[in-house]
Amino acid sequence: MIKLIEKYPIPSLLLFVIVMLGFTIDAIPVTIMEARNFISAREMLTDNNWILTTLNGEARYQKPPLPTWITAVFGYLFGIKSILALRWPALLFVASIGISTYLLSKKLELTKSHSLINGFIALTSFYILGITIEAPWDIYTHGFMLMALYQLFILFQSQKTTILRSLLLVLFLAASVLSKGPVSLYVLFLPFVIAYGIAFKLKGGALHLLKLFSLLVFGIVLGGWWYLHVRVADPETFSAIAERETSNWHSYNVRPFYYYWSFFIQSGLWTVPAFISLLYPYLKTRVINLKAYRFTFFWTIFAVILLSIIPEKKSRYLMPVLIPLALNIGFYIDYIIREFKNLKTKKEKIPVYFQFGLIGSIGVLFWITSFFLGPLLTGIVLIRFIASSIVLAIIGFFIFKHLRAKNIKTTFYLIIAFMLSVGVLVLPLAQVQSQPDYKSFTKLATDNIPLYTLEGVSPEAIYNYGDKIPSIKTKEGIELPKEKQFRLLTSTTNPEKINELAKLYTIEFVNTYDLNFSDRDHKSRLVNQLYLVTLK
């Protein structure tokens, strides 16, 4: 099986993502950022707002439109109500990161086997997967940027600019900017260039570098056309949004400089190899290609440093760092595959046994989680849980077997099989609701009574409802609907506002709608009260 995977590396990486998540990722509830993207995509299709993007009928210029365009196309083809269809574009961009990582590794003159390992590490890193639902714009901007950097690496190495490579570089740069502005230019492109200059030196003469700089400028300008258009078409709204977004960089979620120092933990199951791969004095004498290792090491380090300079910090901003880190981890994995049988010291053996043994233990002992799921395990859920427990236990057993035999390459691919099984079998278990009060808005859209909100509801609620939910509260005050009877959705924290309406309307409480799937991560914004309001 391993030989077959290595024979067809790119199809293997693509197929891995599709099989692992392509038919089960809809089990995870829609997040707030996803909901914003999905709503804007829906309004592109229903209201034709493709350029001046909207959210619940109001201007939404915080993010560029390219990812939402792609989402809208998938929604049009496969159904705007299908969470699976709307998440497929992001999954394809996850696959593109794995493929680009493989291709870039090959250009770094690593072996085909080593390059493929790098690709799989990228695809199984925690936040590279998690970012697809937590902040969907990011996977597009960094995916396009990695494609651009692959072209740039070739242009750096060849020391000449060909028409095709130059065109691809410009288009991918423009697509990255049109996905989330200059973010990826700062956190991926800039550290890439710095690291390349340190490891390989910038060659080709001043004229060649000037051409590359011109291509960079052209790509940024081409990607910035949307910002210019919106600024001209709706200057007042655009300026207000831009000012608010800019102020967040130094006043919102401000964290200390060292906040990102534990960044390697975001690689998830590769945390231990990630940490060891960053021990430059240790690993530099153990890698086959020192220049390539030095390049990925400095690319990772400078990306973290540049992120640390910005006052506003969030864990998800580390996602692009995991791309060069995956390449860096690959050097350590390649080393232990080659040399583990020859290692003599316990200091080098223990981390390997811990890394793979921990995942093997999780597989063997997965059945223990049944004690926490308890009454939820009935019917098809119980069958799926039993199947998951058996498959993971078998994989865990073979992990221990090959680890004992010191077959690290086979053990590595068993970890990949473990992740595949988690996506296919375990992930759907997340759809089981442990919160008994869960209630969806979907049925509200089936009758003709209009629905309004008092002060706005969460994006998750608007997406779940399936249409816009206008607010009756404006800057001037409360603007009463024309209808004699309507429904009103409001948060439980504002009951006094209902009393104001009681002077003119008969207000009847209907139900509580709670979109929280679990009590463990309960969000108050997902709980709303529904009232039937009738003119007296």
Feature tags:
four-stranded mixed β-sheet, 536 residues, alpha+beta, two-stranded antiparallel ribbon
SSE diagram, text form:
Blueprint: H1 2-7, H2 9-21, H3 32-47, E1 54-55, E2 58-59, H4 66-78, H5 83-107, H6 112-123, H7 126-134, H8 136-158, H9 163-180, H10 183-199, H11 205-223, H12 225-233, H13 235-251, H14 271-277, H15 280-283, H16 290-309, H17 322-339, H18 346-364, H19 370-373, H20 379-404, H21 408-426, E3 451-453, H22 459-465, E4 473-474, E5 477-478, E6 485-491, H23 495-501, E7 505-514, E8 527-535
Parallel strand pairs: 3-6
Antiparallel strand pairs: 1-2, 4-5, 6-8, 7-8
What share of residues is helical?
55-70%
**Mean pLDDT metric:** 90
Question: What Rg is obtained from the alpha carbons, in whole angstroms?
Answer: 26 Å
Specify the overall morphology.
globular
Largest β sheet strand count, sense and barrel closure? 4 strands, mixed
Number of domains: 2
β-strand percent reads: 5-15%
Uncertain segments of ≥5 residues (pLDDT<50)? none
Instruction: Give the terminus-to-terminus CA distance.
Output: 73 Å
Please count the helical segments.
Answer: 23
Q: Which structural class matches the secondary elements?
A: alpha+beta
Q: Say how many strands there are.
A: 8
Spatial strand sequence of the major β-sheet: 3-6-8-7
Architecture overview:
The protein has 536 residues and is an alpha+beta fold. It folds into two domains: 31-338, no CATH class; 442-535, no CATH class. The chain is built from 23 helices and eight strands. The strands form three sheets. It has a four-stranded mixed beta sheet, covered by helices on one side. It has a two-stranded antiparallel ribbon with strand order 1-2. Strand 1 and strand 2 (58-59) form a beta hairpin. Helix 5 packs antiparallel against helix 7 and helix 16 (290-309) runs antiparallel to helix 17 (322-339). The chain is globular. The termini are far apart.
